[in-house]
Amino acid sequence: MIETKQDILDILNMPEETFLRDVLPNAQRVREAQFGRRVLLSAMIGYTNVCKNQCLYCGMRAGNSALKRFRVAPEDVIALGKNAAEHGYKRIFLIAGEDPKYGFDGLVRIVKSLKDAGMFVSLACGEFDRAQYAELKAAGTDEYVLKFEMSNPESFNHMNPSTTFARRMEAIETIRSLGLALASGNIIDWPGQTAEELADDILLMKKLGISWAPVIPYLPVLHTPLFGTHHRGSLEKLYKEIAILRLMLPAIRITAQQPGEDLKKGLADPEANYAAIRAGANLLFYDLLPDPLAADFRVIDERHITGPQHAKVLSETYGYVIDTDA
Questions:
Q1: Is 0.90 topped by the overall pTM?
Q2: What is the rounded (10 degree) CA torsion for 169, 126, 186, 236?
Q3: Which structural domain range is residue 282 located in?
Q4: pLDDT bucket at 304, cuts 50 / 70 / 90
């Protein structure tokens, strides 16, 4: 049983072979006890890559002048989402940069239309005020995704200079208080992160009562201040965190759309996704954007998750049941 910070640190600091022998199989058993061989496949639309923020690690930061910006009109987002619903997808993840000119009324219209189409609607579009979160909930939003990224306030404020840790946590608490499901998580092995800080991140996810852990290792991204200055995040730490989260929070969703050793394969590398599933993850994505736009939704480089082919490979190669239900 994993309950304390020391319990988490014991796993984070153990030799990899010990983790693979003693911890990973338990995480696998818990995942299969909860979900069987099912892996959830969610539709996803990045509807604008315009962002006012200057996060040091994000490819969509306002300072990236090399990125071709786009906005998908609300009626086109609705059409893409409804088409996915007609093909059996019951969950949709709407994600965006913090784009103050997109139009909040358009976002509300998107949510209402896709909720009316019978979809579970998950949103990730940044910090709003309480009245706006309440309006999104009234329109039908089921879950709001707002990552705390790192639980160390000083590090957060340095890495995310357009906001503050206090403001981020205030927004997270507002989301929770309104009764929306909260998805939140961290960047694993960001530059300078200690094992103690990683353990604190995991404990914060537990404290927040999250519905989904949208975790990912740190990845160097072109045209960001951190590119070329630090190594990529550790896959070993990624799998350890996924396993810890599965053992601590058996029923949550955990992102399986993860990178592997070869970053050029992006997040659709079946072997990398399989490794994450083995550690306890269970959620994949299918990007509904056409390739030219999907390539410009560059929170990270080389995403490669347009179309459901990567999920089909996981099913055919490893025997998982790909589930498009909510």
A1: yes
A2: 180
A3: 5-323
A4: confident
Q: Which residue has the tokens 């059409």?
A: 79
Nearest to 266 by CA among 294, 226, 238: 294
Task: State CA 217 to chain mean position distance.
Answer: 11
Mean pLDDT of 149-157: 98
- Cβ-in-10-Å burial (0-12, 13-18, 19+) of 70 comes to middle
CA distance 227 to 219: 9
CATH number at residue 263: 3.20.20.70
- CB neighbour burial string for 181-191, b if at least 16 within 10 angstroms, e if fewer: bbbbbbbbbbb
Domain count, the chain: 1
Residue pLDDT, tens place only, 178-197: 999 999 999 999 999 999 99
Return the bridge partners of 92, or none: 43, 121
**Is 326:122 a contact under the CB 8 Å cutoff?**
no
DSSP one-letter code for 307: S
Question: What interhelical angle do 309-318 and 270-279 show, nearest 10?
Answer: 60
Give the chain's largest Cα–Cα span.
52
pLDDT of residue 306: 83
Tokens of 243: 């396993």
Distance in angstroms (rounded) separating the CA atoms of residues 300 and 163 = 20
Whether the per-residue pLDDT at 110 is higher than 90: the answer is yes
Work out the pLDDT band at 302, boundaries 50, 70, 90. Answer: confident
Distance CA(9)–CA(219), nearest Å, equals 23
CA 213 vs CA 87, 146, 185, 193, 241: distances in Å: 26, 10, 5, 19, 10
Neighbours of 177 (CB within 10 A): 11
pLDDT at position 32: 97
Residue 220 — very low, low, confident or very high, per pLDDT cuts 50/70/90? very high
Q: Which residues contact 79 (CB under 8 A, 6 or more apart)?
A: none
